[in-house]
TrEMBL record:
It comes from Candidatus Hakubella thermalkaliphila. It comes from the Bacteria. This is Uncharacterized protein. It holds the Pfam family BrxA.
Amino acid sequence: MNQKDISSARQISSSRYKANLQRVGSAIPETISLLSEYARLGDWQLVRQRVIQENLLKKHSSATINAIIQAVKSRFFSNNAQLPGADIAAKFLMSNISEITKAQIIYIYLINSDHLIKQTFLKLVKPTIETSSNPILTSQGVVAFLDGEVKAHPELDRWSDYLKRRWARGFLAFCRDFGFMKRAPSTELTAPRIRVETFTFLLFALLQAGLSNMEAIGHDIWVLYLLREEQKENLLTESQARGWLYYARAAEIMELRPKYESVEEWIENALG
């Protein structure tokens, strides 16, 4: 198999719908624990050994521990959506930021690592929030969405009804965990308020990856936070007020300059 065939096979594999979410869920506190250890040790294999030997995750099942380790690895070490590497993400999660901000960053790595979660969000959650006067989402609604995707994704036809229901419940929990649904028993969807630290971390990362100012501001990543243009403007203004960047706009001309050389420098000097 040549390199082109390998690349094509990887793209097909990554676009398949897989039932990964229900295995460990969002795993927000576990992700923070694992990446904190990674920031300290700098070696994922050492982190894995220590977590297993000392049961740092406080789980009763070795299968659960291994599943969480594998999930975090796939979310942060196999992600190529122009997101910072696991080392930088770990430093950010260890900085002086709120738990909500940490969750908002974990969210973007998770959703970009799972094609089914991402498409369910974009095709079901996003339009429901943006167009419905009563944005309700139930597990039955998620199952109906999965059934409607079978033609484009025949792999779903092999899912049992039980697996579909279980994944649907896991997806609703995912929405609640990251602020896109009100607390149970409510099933009302909502758009969370994105923190300025979350926005600035990702903006600086996009600029550092070589995108122009307009490309970074117009990037698809903001769609996954349901950010409107006026909200981006407000976040840019707030980031400037904190001394993190310079921002000015006149008609179609935009000037945007980070006041730090890199994402890492911003984390170390601005967030502590």
